[in-house]
Amino acid sequence: MGLFDRLSSLIKANLNDLISKAEDPEKVLEQSILDMRSQLAKAKQQVAAAIADEKRLRDQAESEFKQAGEWEQRAMLAIQQNRDDLARQALLRQSEHAEHAASLQRTWESHSAETEKLKSLLRDLNDKIEEAKRKKNLLLARARRAEAQARIQNTMSGLSEKSAFEAFSRMEEKIEMNERRLTASAEIEEEFSGDKLQSDFKRLEKAAGGMSAEARLLELKQKMGMLPAGAPQAKQLPKGAGEVAEAEFEHLDDTAAS
Predict the structure, then answer these.
(1) Cα separation values, 122 from 50, 117, 118, 216, 252, Å
(2) What are the residue boundaries of the structural domains of the chain, listed by start?
(3) Contact between 203 and 240 (Cβ < 8 Å)
(4) CB-count exposure of residue 61 (10 Å: 0-12, 13-18, 19+)
(5) 133 near 47, Cβ under 8 Å?
(6) d(CA 96, CA 68)
(7) C-alpha to C-alpha distances, 222 to 99, 214, 230, nearest whole angstrom
(8) Which of the four pLDDT bands, split at 50, 70 and 90, describes residue 236?
(9) Helix count (H) and strand count (E) of the chain?
(10) Which of 6, 60, 103, 125 is the most exposed place for a label (fewest CB within 10 A)?
(11) 239 phi and psi, to 5 degrees?
């Protein structure tokens, strides 16, 4: 095996190995989208939990502010009833609720900002999934085109000058040679055949050719004005006349040459 054939076989084997180990693009892309959707569902749950915590903190802060206002009203009532002792206790309780409410307010505001970030990330993830779904068909078309090119390259790598093309050319040449041999055999058979009937017909055809030549000669003389227009038609040449005429023409050619 030559160097080219060895390299061709190696390339073909490597291509087959790559194709056999290659992942199915359609399955991979579909699974990727399923994974994205799963991540999106988990992200939605986390964002929903964050929103719920935000609402709880907001409700708690509002409740503390409300209680702080109620204790302030009670302190005012105690003062109206000359119960400064109760008023002091009510103000202490109002202060506790107010401080707690302020702390919850700050926590709620921070949590609300984080929740908005999560919502933005969730929208981005959803947009990416929609974009991936739109691109899937385009990627599959490109993958199928690459697979087709690999198959064509794999097929072409197995072709060489000593392939089916050479066999086709060799058979074409053999057929043409057989046709030439048959034609040559027919010519030999026709030339050297001992069939008397066939020979007789050949002589008749030759004599007919000589008569045709005589007729053309008379027509040419009439055209040149050497014979009248109503001159008689040429008669059939006698047997052997063609050979005699041929000898005479050869004699004329020799005389002209000398």
Answers:
(1) 12, 9, 6, 107, 115
(2) 3-160, 196-258
(3) no
(4) buried
(5) no
(6) 8
(7) 146, 13, 9
(8) very low
(9) 6, 0
(10) 6
(11) -60, 130
